[in-house]
Specification:
The structure is a single chain. This protein is an alpha/beta fold. It has helices at 8-18, 39-55, 72-84, 97-107, 119-125, 184-198, 215-228, 243-249, 259-268, 288-298, 373-379, 418-426, 463-471; strands at residues 23-28, 34-38, 63-67, 87-90, 111-115, 132-136, 164-170, 178-183, 205-208, 231-235, 254-258, 279-283, 303-306, 316-317, 330-331, 336-340, 353-358, 368-369, 385-393, 399-404, 408-411, 414-417, 431-441, 445-454, 483-485. The strands form 6 sheets. It has a 9-stranded mixed beta sheet with strand order 2-1-10-9-11-12-13-14-15. The protein has a 4-stranded parallel beta sheet with strand order 4-3-5-6, sandwiched between helices. It is globular, with a radius of gyration of 22 Å.
């Protein structure tokens, strides 16, 4: 399908013009204080943030590193960057100095907007002579460090659908995380498709508790809300104990979660007043009993979906009338999905195949991987985007997850490359080689587990020292939950590690 012409900047300006007095953002900070902005008031804030970025030298085509937790500053910076025709590079604010340094080195941002809690890590990880750093407090609703009291300058050229708008880092099957280039048109397409799929209207309100640096909150909540002029209640961080009460307090109608947060909510309590969600997306399977309990708590039957940072919208989604707890759903309207065998041929219903997506680069699919055209070409081999995930389809068009190609783990909804974690472990002087596998986890879906062969002369290296090594170099989702020492790793005749032979003798502590 060809994406309709449009840009994120254009979708925002259209909403501001159409519904200037409608609430756009309600913010609940870490102090539980509530603040709200109409579309018109937030647009004035965006304009001043754009002027502030321009005063620091940002122009169309430049990159702005955003290292922020959920906050009005994140939203305003994102929209200001889009308005200017610049490009946002969001990083997990919990990232290690090493990870932040890699992201900055690979993208060469002109300016970095960094949360106060991440400032020390950023200073430690990013070399001198890097971007101009602006430190902000995520609870600040004035955004004084970012703003300039002047009209934002018009971009030097009109913002176009194919212009890069963000680089989202997502772990791949190589040691280095891949930078997914997302265009202005991609965001517009995601917003239009996901608003329609969720039945989102102007009177609705999304509650967002997932991190904004992640594609889920951007693609499935904020972009759809902007597309139809709806509102968003943004919470500073996810709390399983507080979520139901927050959803009720903000009169939210829509939400998007992963299976792990759903299970956490289920285990932590009940709302103080009825929750009246009409719709809730979730990714990954829950049990039938968990699903029915969650439906009672949320006031709606949650609908599973499937998507990747690269696919832009969720290309599979459960319909509103008969969602199933064990199915990723049918092909989302506006998307083109098939299942292929190893030779690139479509498979029959009931047979497992790789999920592949047809579309246009920079329009209905991501534009490519940052500075890696070879990997981009490989991912689009055969004229389709190859997701690396496998599924089978029943006669009614429903899809069911059937595993992953390669070494990708799914930890609390986030992609984690086993190879990336292995590279960090292998850099320890006491490690000869390492392998990382996934272990099922009741809360996080799966967690990384390390298998390590000690280097000669380093027999004293223990689990505690390696877990500490990883803690300073990897964000929380990527850190192994346990380390098992072995004399050698099982291999095939050509030397490839046979990971399926690595069985966990005990659970992580």
């Amino acid at each position: 399908m060809t994406a309709p012409a449009g840009t994120l900047a254009g979708r925002w300006q259209r909403a501001v013009a159409a519904v200037p007095l409608r609430t756009f953002l309600v913010w609940e900070g870490s102090d539980a204080a509530l603040h709200s902005w109409t579309y018109a008031r937030f647009d004035a804030l965006v304009e001043e943030v754009a002027a502030g970025l321009a005063a620091r030298g940002v122009v169309a085509g430049m990159r702005v590193h955003v290292v922020l937790a959920n906050s009005p500053a994140f939203v305003a910076t994102w929209l200001a960057v889009a308005r200017m025709g610049a490009c946002m590079v969001p990083s997990d604010p919990r990232s290690s100095p090493v990870e932040l340094g890699v992201h900055a080195a690979r993208t060469a941002p002109a300016v970095a907007v960094v949360g106060r809690g991440s400032a020390d890590a950023y200073a430690a990880g990013v070399a001198a002579g890097g971007p101009d750093v602006v430190v902000v407090d995520e609870d600040d609703v004035e955004l004084t460090p970012l703003r300039r009291r002047a009209a934002a300058p018009s971009p030097s050229h009109p913002v176009r659908p194919r212009d890069p708008c963000a680089i989202l880092f997502t772990s791949g099957t190589t040691a280095a995380p891949k930078g997914v280039v997302v265009t202005q048109g991609n965001y517009a397409f995601a917003g239009d498709v996901m608003a329609a799929a969720a039945g989102l209207g102007a009177a609705d309100r999304y509650i967002v508790v997932l991190p904004l640096f992640h594609a889920n909150a951007q693609y499935y909540a904020f972009a759809p809300a902007i597309s139809v002029g709806a509102s968003v209640a943004l919470v500073h961080a996810f709390s399983a104990t507080a979520f139901l009460t927050q959803a009720a307090r903000h009169r939210a109608t829509h939400a998007s979660l992963f299976a792990a947060p759903l299970r956490m909510i289920l285990a932590r309590g009940t709302p103080s007043r009825p929750v009246r969600l009409r719709h809730c997306w979730y990714a990954q399977n829950v049990t039938a009993d968990q699903y029915e309990q969650m439906a009672l708590l949320l006031g709606c039957r949650p609908r599973q979906l499937y998507g990747m940072t690269e696919t832009i919208p969720a290309v599979l989604s459960s319909g509103p009338l008969s969602p199933r707890h064990d199915s990723m759903g049918e092909v989302t309207l506006g998307c083109d999905v098939d299942l292929h065998d190893a030779e690139g041929r479509p498979v029959r219903d009931g047979d497992a195949g790789e999920i592949v997506v047809r579309g246009t680069r920079g329009g209905t699919l991501f534009d490519g991987y940052l500075d890696d055209e070879a990997t981009t070409r490989e991912s689009f081999a055969g004229g389709v985007f190859r997701t690396g995930d496998r599924a089978f389809r029943d006669g009614d068009g429903r899809h069911y997850f059937a595993g992953r190609r390669g070494d990708m783990l799914k930890v609390s909804g986030e992609n984690v490359s086993a190879v990336e974690v292995e590279a960090v472990l292998a850099a320890h002087p006491g490690v000869f080689e390492a392998a990382v596998t996934g272990m099922p986890d009741d809360v996080r879906d799966e967690v990384p587990v390390a298998w390590v062969v000690r280097a000669t002369g380093h027999e004293s290296v223990d689990e505690e020292s390696l877990l500490g090594w990883c803690a300073t170099r990897l964000s929380p989702a990527k850190r192994p939950r346990a380390v098992h020492f072995v004399d050698e790793l099982p291999r095939t005749s050509v030397g490839k590690i046979r990971k399926f032979l690595l069985s966990v003798p005990r659970g992580p502590r």
